[in-house]
Amino acid sequence: MRPSLCCVPLFLLLLLHLAFARPLFPLPSKMKNEEKKPIQTFRPYNIAHRGSNGEIPEETAAAYQRAIEEGADFIETDILASEDGALICFHDVTLDETTDVARHKEFANRRRTYEVEWANVTGWFVVDFTLEELKTLKVNQRYSFRDQQYNGMFTIITFEEFISIALDADRTVGIYPEIKDPVFINKHVKWADGKKFEDKFVDTLLKYGYNGQYMSENWLKKPLFIQSFAPTSIVHVSKLIDSPKVFLIDDITVRTQDTNQSFWEITSDDYLAYIRKYVVGLGPWKDTIVPAAGNYLMPPSDLVARAHAHNLQVHPYTYRNENQFLHFNFHQDPYTEYDFWINTVGIDGLFTDFTGTLHRYQKLTSPHRKDETANSLLVKIGQMISAYEGL
């Protein structure tokens, strides 16, 4: 005999509802005071390096929107300043590599030679263009072996436009902006109110409600990591905002752009103990953690272990799908590379040019919290039922 529907437990009706997608009550997205799906915090962060720039030209609105579609936890950007003090999203201090500036005859006389990070560089510099002029340029794909179909389709965006992309997402998406080349910017760009580049950077974040220590209530609503290669900038912004910061570390041959310190100095235990007062993590070039020779990996250094001993996260950069970026150990398989770095090296976040690839790997290998057992799921169902019955 077919049982009466009224005798079926409510939690089974709920399961049937989930299975057949027939709403028994208003879905969360339709309720008042809508809450966005929170950012995941139980597995290493998927950080979209300059957006999904393996597919679409870097630092463009389309690249960031694509990264969000593909599952990024954070969208990462580099912040520079224009001649008239506008903060923009762009990686290089020169426009040569990723824009069509060379085709603009009206800018032919703008080429300059400036000192940048201890070396002379010649090109068209961001700091010699107003925001209005920068907006006339089109962005191209950096690497010739990547998809070229989007070249010339997108423009440079501002820091505020970048923030809007994250805030307009249909789920909680964090931002991960870098204070790019602050020594150079502060030398060439002056603001009428006497503020520094770092001050304007923080003012923009505060304007949009970004503040709060790591994992605080406000941080979870608007997740943010501030990053910089310049330790003096990190110390300065620490006085202005309590949001978590990450100290970036370049190749072992590169000295810090502001304090002129070597890689070995800034990765010593004494220095980690010092910088820990200002940051929650390190962002090292991945080959400084696990060196390579002849395109084969060598034994890992102890940098991750020592950073963790100082209670510092480690977010290495940059992970790329193409064969020329994959060491032979990974057999041209980016999943194998992710597995090595997450499960053997034990990192806490990854800067990737291919957000979708990392997201698919993590959905396959760690789709839920480790403590999310069947019992905990039943508890959640019970809570949903209680909330429904209380309506």
From TrEMBL:
UniProt GO MF annotations: glycerophosphodiester phosphodiesterase activity
EC assignment: 3.1.4.46
GO biological process: glycerol metabolic process; lipid metabolic process
Domain GP-PDE: 44-362
The UniProt record lists the keyword Phosphoprotein: no
Pfam families: GDPD
Keyword tags: Glycerol metabolism, Glycoprotein, Hydrolase, Signal
Catalyses which reaction(s): a sn-glycero-3-phosphodiester + H2O = an alcohol + sn-glycerol 3-phosphate + H(+)
Family that this chain belongs to: Belongs to the glycerophosphoryl diester phosphodiesterase family.
Name of this protein: glycerophosphodiester phosphodiesterase
